[in-house]
Amino acid sequence: MRIRPPISAGAIVAGVLTFMLTFLSVPPALGHVGNALLPEGCGSCHVGHGMKNQPMLDMAEEDFCYQCHGGEDTRTRMKSEGRLTAGIELADIEREFQKTFHHPVKEGSGHSPGERLPSLKTATVGHAECVDCHNPHQRIEAGRPQTYAVTGYSLSGQYLESSIYEYQICLKCHSEYLGADRSVKSLSADFDQSVRSQHPVTRGARGVRLPSLAAGSGRSLTMTCSDCHTSDDREGPRGPHGSDHRFLLSGNYTRDIVTDESPYTYEFCYSCHDRSSILSNESFPLHREHIVGDPISGRSGTSCHTCHASHGSRDNPHLLDFNPKGVERDSRTGLLRYEERGEHGGACYLRCHDHDHGPAEY
Ligand code: HEC
Ligand code: HEC
Ligand code: HEC
Ligand code: HEC
Ligand code: HEC
Ligand code: HEC
Ligand code: HEC
Hints:
Elements: H1 10-23, H2 42-45, H3 61-69, H4 72-80, H5 93-97, E1 101-102, H6 130-133, E2 152-153, E3 159-160, H7 166-171, E4 197-198, H8 225-228, E5 242-243, H9 267-270, H10 275-279, H11 287-292, E6 312-313, E7 327-328, E8 337-340, E9 346-352, E10 355-361
Antiparallel strand pairs: 1-5, 2-3, 4-6, 7-9, 8-9, 9-10
Helix pairs in contact: 3-4
Bound molecules: heme C (7 copies).
C-alpha cells in the first residue's frame, strides 16, 4: 500500500528520531544493522528528514524495502548513493508480489509505524506488510533464522513479543483468536496438537517409514508453513510472498473430484512425495486406481484432495479427510469413516463415484 508523498513537517519527526537513534538503546550488532553490505549502517536506511510519519525513511512501507529488494533499477540507485555495496545481488521480492496470488502488501489497509502488532482491528482484514513478518533490525544469519524478532501468537492463543517458530507469525492473522474464524482461513484448529495426523509444522514428524519420501526428499523433523506456501519459482526467493498458483503454493495443485493425472496436476505434492512411488502403490494399494482412474471401466481419476487434508486431519491417520463435495455416507450402513487395520491396511465406509464402500478394505 502506498502512502502520500512526503510533506515538509518531517522535521519534527526527524528530530524525534535523531533523539531516539542517539539516546535510546538499540541492541548492538543487530540485523541489517552492522551488515558489511550496508556501507552506511543505519544511514543506509534512515536518511535525511524522511517522510511524514516515517522514522527517517525516504519511502513508505514496501516501497522502502524494494529500494534494495526490488528491481535492478532502484538497487542501482542505492549502490550509486553508496547505501548498498556495489556488486551485491539481491533477489527481486517485488516481482513476487506481482504474481496472481500474493499477500496484499500493496492493496492492504496498511501498517502504521508505532502500531503494536498484531492489531485486532487491522490484522484480520487485508493487512500484511513486510514489517508484519520481518523485523528490519533483526540479525541476519546464514540459513534460517533461529528466532524471529516479530510478534506472533502461540497455538493456544498467547501473544508473543517475539516468535520462536515461523507459524506463530502466521497465526497472528490466520487464527481464530483474532476473530478470523469469520473467514475460512482459521488455521489453529488444523494445526492443533491434538489432531490425529498433520504435516509436521507444530509438532515433530512421526518418524515412521513413508515410502514416497524414501530418498531423503526434503524430509526433516519439522516443516514450516513456507515450505509449502512459497514462490513457485524454484530458484526464486523463499517465503510466502507470491506465486502464480492458487493458495500461494510452490506448485500446481488441482483439487477437482474428476481430474486427469499428470506430473503437473499434482506438481505440488510430487515436489516432496515421489510420483512413481505413489502411482506404484507402495503404501496404499489402490492409489493408482483412484488417482489415474481405470481406462477399462472408463472411470476417471480423482485428486489427492478427495481423500487427503493438506494441513491436518482431526480424526484420521495418514491425513485422511474425505472431500464432502465428492464423498458421502455409505447408503447401506450410513457411515462415513476410515478405520485403520495394521500397517498399510484399512477400511473405508463411504459412497463415492456412485459406488458404496461399506466397507471397502485393503
Ligand atoms: C534495512 C533498513 C534499516 C536499517 C539498516 C536500520 N533501520 Fe531502523 N528502521 C527501519 C524501518 C523499516 C523502520 C520502521 C519499522 C516499522 O515501521 O515498524 C525502522 C525504525 C526505526 C526506529 C523507530 C522505532 C522502531 O524500532 O520501530 C528506530 C529508533 C530505528 N529504526 C533505529 C535504527 C538504528 C539506530 C539503526 C542502526 C543501528 C537502524 N535503525 C538501522 C529500517 C532500518
Ligand atoms: C539499503 C538496502 C536494504 C534495504 C532498504 C532493506 N534491505 Fe533487507 N537486506 C539488505 C541486505 C544487503 C541483506 C543481506 C543479504 C545477504 O546477506 O545476502 C538483506 C537481507 C534481508 C533479509 C534476510 C534474507 C535472508 O537470506 O535471510 C530479509 C528478510 C530482508 N532483508 C527484509 C527486508 C525488509 C522487510 C526491508 C524493508 C523494511 C528491507 N529488507 C530493507 C539490504 C536492504
Ligand atoms: C499481518 C497479517 C498476516 C500475516 C502475519 C500472515 N498473513 Fe497470510 N494473509 C493475510 C491476508 C490479509 C491475506 C489475503 C486474504 C485474502 O485475500 O482473502 C493472506 C493470504 C494468505 C494465503 C492465501 C490464502 C488463499 O486463500 O489463497 C496464504 C497461503 C497465507 N496467507 C499464508 C501465510 C503464511 C504461511 C504466513 C506466515 C509466514 C502468513 N500468511 C502470515 C494476512 C497475513
Ligand atoms: C514440502 C514437502 C511436502 C509437500 C509439498 C507435501 N508433503 Fe506430504 N509430507 C511431507 C513430510 C515431511 C511428511 C512426513 C510427516 C511425518 O513423518 O510425520 C509428509 C507426510 C504426508 C502424508 C502421511 C501422513 C501420515 O501421518 O501418515 C500424507 C498422506 C501426505 N504427506 C500427503 C501429501 C499431499 C496430498 C500433498 C499435496 C497436497 C503433500 N503431502 C505435499 C512433506 C510434504
Ligand atoms: C504440506 C504443505 C502445507 C503446509 C506445511 C501448510 N500448508 Fe497451508 N495449504 C496447503 C494447501 C495444499 C492448501 C490448499 C487448500 C487445501 O488443500 O486445504 C493450503 C491452504 C492454506 C490457506 C488458505 C485456506 C483456505 O481454505 O482458504 C492458508 C491461509 C494457509 N494454507 C496457511 C498456512 C499456514 C499459516 C501454515 C502453517 C501453520 C500452512 N498453511 C502450512 C499446504 C500447506
Ligand atoms: C506474510 C509474511 C511475509 C510478508 C508479508 C513478507 N515476507 Fe518476506 N519472508 C517471509 C518468510 C516466512 C520468509 C522465509 C524465511 C525462511 O525461509 O526461513 C521470507 C523471506 C524473505 C527474504 C529472503 C528470501 C531469500 O530467499 O533469501 C527477503 C529478502 C524478504 N522475505 C523480504 C520481504 C519484503 C521486502 C517484503 C515486503 C515487500 C516481505 N518480505 C514480506 C514472510 C513474509
Ligand atoms: C482414494 C483415496 C486416496 C487418494 C485419491 C489419494 N490417497 Fe494417498 N493415501 C490414501 C490412503 C488410504 C493412505 C494410507 C495407506 C496406508 O494405510 O498406509 C494413503 C497414504 C498416502 C501417503 C503416505 C504413505 C506414502 O506413500 O508415503 C502419501 C504421501 C499419500 N497418500 C499421498 C497421496 C497423493 C500425493 C495423492 C494424489 C496424487 C494421493 N495420496 C491420493 C488414500 C488416497
